[in-house]
Amino acid sequence: MSLPTTPSQTVGPFFSIGLNRLCTNNFCPPEIPGERITIHGRVLDGDNQPVPDAILEIWQANTSGNFPHYGSHQPDTLANFNGFGRVATNDDGEFQFTTIKPGPTLGPNNHSQAPHLSINLFMRGLLKHLVTRLYFPNDPLHTTDFALNLIEPNRRATLIAEKSATDPATFEWNIHLQGPQETVFFDS
Questions:
Q1: Is the peptide bond before 108 cis (omega within 30 degrees of 0)?
Q2: Closest by Cα among 14, 168, 20, 178 to 95
Q3: What is the pLDDT of residues 9-36, one digit of tens each?
């Protein structure tokens, strides 16, 4: 008896079936206070080719540096901000979303962390999601941020977005899965 070869993909692509309906490109209702920003970038593989079927799951603090907690007594202006969103890449590996710029949060030993977005990356072929962070350029808290200080100085730039040359409210940031520009990923 002869059986067909097992497909080479280990996972997916199931994202368009189960997760795309949860994706949005605007994470923040208009009544939420804070600086509106847009993040634009691409997910690229080791050959610098686009990854067309990835999903980024973003977790973030609000502009005051607080993470929303369900059941907490938040001001009415924060009631509709959940600090969470998902965005899918398109056929060119591009993603884009709008949110508010988060404030500094407390980290280990109550030291301030630089404003950042926590990002989980899901895609075909991964048995476990990848975890990374996006930081904003020229923040003075970069020098004391515990996570950035775990990384070799020459690799930290892979986590720091760049301001767009054409729009000061837009940040450019690419995720490189492998290669010389490989994004830093953390153990989850």
A1: no
A2: 20
A3: 555 555 555 566 667 888 888 888 899 9
- Runs of H (alpha helix) within the chain: 15-18
> Which tens digit of pLDDT belongs to each residue from 72-121?
555 555 666 788 899 999 999 999 999 999 999 988 888 899 999 999 99
Instruction: Report strand pairing: 170-172 vs 162-163.
Output: antiparallel
CATH architecture of 15-176: Sandwich (2.60)
179-185 LR contacts (CB < 8 Å, sep 24+): 179/46, 179/47, 179/48, 182/158, 183/132, 183/158, 183/159, 184/132, 184/151, 184/155, 184/156, 184/158, 184/159, 185/130, 185/131, 185/132
pTM, to two decimals: 0.86
Residues 43 and 107 sit within 8 Å (Cβ to Cβ): no
| Rounded Cα–Cα distance for residues 176 and 169 (Å) | 23
Distance CA 42, CA 87 (A): 12
174, 124, 98, 176: which is closest to 18 by C-alpha? 124
